[in-house]
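Pipeline run #58 for the internal structure catalog. This entry was flagged by the ingest filter as a single-chain record with no existing model, so it goes straight to prediction. Upstream metadata was stripped on purpose; only the residue string is passed forward. Reviewer on rotation: M.T. Logging verbosity set to normal.
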Amino acid sequence: MKAASELRSTKALRAETYTVLFGLLACTGMRISEALRLTRSDVDLEAGVITIRSAKFQTSRLVPTHDLATPALRACAGQRDRRVTRPRSDAFFLSESGTSLKYITVHHTFDRLRHQLGWKSGRQQRAPRIHDLRHTFAVRCLIRWYEQGAEINHKIASLSTYLGHADVSSTYWYLSAVPELLALAAARFEGGCDAVVCGGSPMTTASPPPFPLLVQQYFCQRLIAQRNASQRTVSSYRDTFRLLLGFAENRLHKIPTALALSDLDAPFILEFLDHLEQGRGNTPRTRNARLTTIRSL
């Protein structure tokens, strides 16, 4: 944002626009396409609420902004109206010619700032992208909630709605996105087990731990700690469970936090495998690899 504030242009609007645009992405986690499609009427500068219409999957949602974001948006709008007296678009973010900002232009500007700041990709990694601001927002929310001892299974549903995910299983992906989150999830699992064992409600075969807790244990304890699985293996197994949880939500009408291990019975797994092969066009080899993952759980 500091580098963006130093961008030069004829009407001195470019610096203000990009500073607020990148700041908005960082503090709301919205998609760049959503930000660029915002109109003036979509941004309520009094209430501090942004309306995102016809987003990905043709959904709409309300996005409340941080108290510090609203004054910045208000200042940006004032600067825009002073610099562009005859706009050719109703977009909130305008170019100096009065047209809506184009993604290719924003992408080019981000690349220039990234190069200027020395952001480089590591070995076998891609360079940081605009979309990574969204990932960072989600991961930091989860880390903060873990550190505060919040009930993640309840919080993650709110985060899923705020981000505009089609289903909550897409939001659960972030739990395996970074090592720090995996470590926090593992610590939470250990604490949960201790509380159950020592708190007068011992786990028995008749009362297994909640399904989300089992999945956390599986990734953090079984794959990471015990088997020392590679990042590629963890990613492959994670993708299998994303597909499985999404299928369960559609077929059983249960979000991941409401699932029980007993829901994943043989008939359901067979339906899931048929869906992979017939609905998604997976080869028998891929289908069997997914089955191996589920059996390992």
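catalog note: The longest strand covers residues 49-52.
catalog note: DSSP finds twelve helices and three strands in the chain.
status: ready for reviewer M.T.
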